[in-house]
Amino acid sequence: MADPESGDEMHLDNFHTHTYRCKHASGDVADYCLEARRRGMQTLGFSDHSALPDDRWIQARMDYADLSEYTAAIDQAQIDFPDLKILKGMECEYIPKFRHWYEDELYGARRFDYLVGAAHFFTVDGKWFGTYGGTNSAARLAAFAAYNIAMIETGLFDFIAHPDLFGNCYKDWDADAIACSRDILQAAAEHGVGMEINALGLRKQAYKKPENPYPLYPWLPFWEEATAFDVKVIINSDAHRPVDLQSRTGTATQIATDLGLSFMDTSKIGRRQPENSVNSE
Q1: Strands (E), 50-148
Q2: Which residues of the chain have pLDDT under 70?
Q3: pTM for the complete prediction?
Q4: Cβ-contact 103, 156 below 8 angstroms
Q5: Which CATH architecture has domain 13-268?
């Protein structure tokens, strides 16, 4: 079957799904579940942009006050949509001082199934920079790589979202871009953390303005580099609207297939899920 939005082959699982709570998406948990059911999908993992105890980056993140509502909506969907495997996740930057919060509150008290690491921000000498527009020099690329490696090494995250996001403002595939990519990929291989080929980037490429010189993401040379490492990839839509649950995922899958990359065993995502959870298998 084909994705009615893009003509891509349907992808039956999505582990990168946002709700309106992040302030730049639309739809709530039930809306995505209804769309997933309509499309014959099997697994839906929610991973909205993480609420944080200090409400930093709040203009594009869930308010901390909304966290209980978010988790309750997912818990209810697990009851209301028994035909879907629904997982509770969050897309997170890694903030070291909150290490115990990820472990004790998200994985612990709130029974999250998985977390996604994502470097929309990264640190240079203790100062935070935005990746959009921020990975614009050799030094910044090295810092971006170091931040991703630190996330990977925590063991908190099942996969890293759009690890090639630095292509949003770095134009040339040069020695520094290669070094950044290899460092991230080597860490992912050593720690068994998945790398995401992100279909939202393909949708962004489709609407890129002619005067934009940047490759955006997925940046094909990054994934060509990945062939030299024992990394596993995952395909996700990064849906910010229910209609986007499968959009461009067929094209993203084809990138991995053409390069001979190995896919993650997505049945292991949610391995921290308690055995007595509503959706346990």
Answers
A1: 85-92, 114-117, 121-124, 127-130
A2: 1-10, 271-281
A3: 0.93
A4: yes
A5: Alpha-Beta Barrel (3.20)
